[in-house]
Amino acid sequence: MARAMNASRKMQALDALESNVRSYSRSFPAVFSRARGSIMLTEDGRKVVDFFSGAGTLNYGHNNHRIKAAIADYLASDAVVHGLDMATPAKIDFMELFNTVILARRNLEYCFQFTGPTGANAIEAAIKLARKVTGRQNIISFTNGYHGMSLGAMAASGNRAYRTASGVALSGATFMPYDGYLGPDVDTADYLQKVLADESSGIDCPAAILVETVQGEGGINVAGREWLQAVQTVAKSAGALLIVDDVQMGCGRTGHFFSFEFADLSPDLVVLSKSLSGYGLPLSMVLIKKEFDAWQPGEHTGTFRGNNLALVAAMAAIDLYWRDEAFGLEVLRLGEFMRHRLETIAVKYGNSFAVRGRGMAFGFDCQMPEIAAATARGAFERGLMVERCGPVDQVVKFLPALTIDCETLDHGLEIFEQALNQALKRTRSS
Predict the structure, then answer these.
(1) The pLDDT of residue 3
(2) If you average pLDDT over every residue of the chain, what do you get?
(3) Count of beta carbons in the 10 Å neighbourhood of residue 429
(4) Global confidence as pTM
(5) Whole-angstrom Cα distance, residue 337 to residue 355?
(6) Following CA atoms 174, 399, 64, 41 in sequence, which dihedral angle do they give, to the nearest 10 degrees?
(7) Can you give the CATH number for the domain in which 363 is found?
(8) Among the three residues 292, 321, 350, which one is the final residue of a domain in this structure?
(9) 189 and 304, same domain (yes or no)
(10) How many domains does one find in the chain?
């Protein structure tokens, strides 16, 4: 009782002191005190299975002990934590390890740009560089895309509510239909090619085509291999740079380190953040093909670039999980287990439901936002954390840690089914 009262007092303090802009503390109304792996603990003693993973930031789980050990050793040594973009052993070692283990094995060659600490910072840098390289302004983005909350990133994002909240006119981007947006019989890559080739289409020649291979916030919309390859071809023929936003779907989320590997793409720029550090520490970067590294020294800068503590954590994650193919194969195996369970639930409770995803990123489309909201709320009450996404938040999104054990994964899916069942009963009875 005392713990519950203390937690309630702290939530009241949150309501009194924090801005109305807060979001996740409303979706998950509890005070979280500890976490490990895929389990979070609240101050009032509840255990919550985490299928949210910090919006994709905790691919290796909460407080991964082996990564934490590397962080602790680095801190104990009095090594440099903040150094702007000065040379440090941590930064050099990270780049060498990433180049050897991640890039070279995939026949990819990039140089590294460490940006400000968020994915939006890196998106802004990538867009800015593409405009500098090409001398053009227009960015081709896609329906339901999401790239961040700063103005340049928001201009290339589709969600109307977010765009309206910017308070200014958002320009510099043209939206094209994503794969499947116009139905299965319309090749939207072919449409893109036609409007860019047509001198009278009204679409300015683009500096870049910016794409997510799986749209996370947009509703877990999955682009096909052939479509992505066609978009890459269109970008090249149009003289535009291809930018892959791998902020949420990179670092193993789809079963490969990069989400574009399955399509054999070679993007000109790749944006990484979220799970790059492996521990929830802020770290973002842009991978740049060397022929497009047109920056002048200090032309794009920031105080918090390449935080050394985050780089040490990132090296530990790469060492632990990406030295061979075993980890990615396990992600794919668990992903197929998730897909089967979710598709079984969808068939059981109604043919209108749809399951979409790749690797261990899945969306359960409830079609109606009120059902998704009631399901997510009921899941949290029962001990499962899931987020919603999609144009009207009608999709329940699943982003469990890639390191989750099968028993915990199965338990979380059972909770989801119970919550969905209860939500449907309440909806049908009202």
Answers:
(1) 67
(2) 95
(3) 6
(4) 0.96
(5) 13
(6) 120
(7) 3.90.1150.10
(8) 321
(9) yes
(10) 2
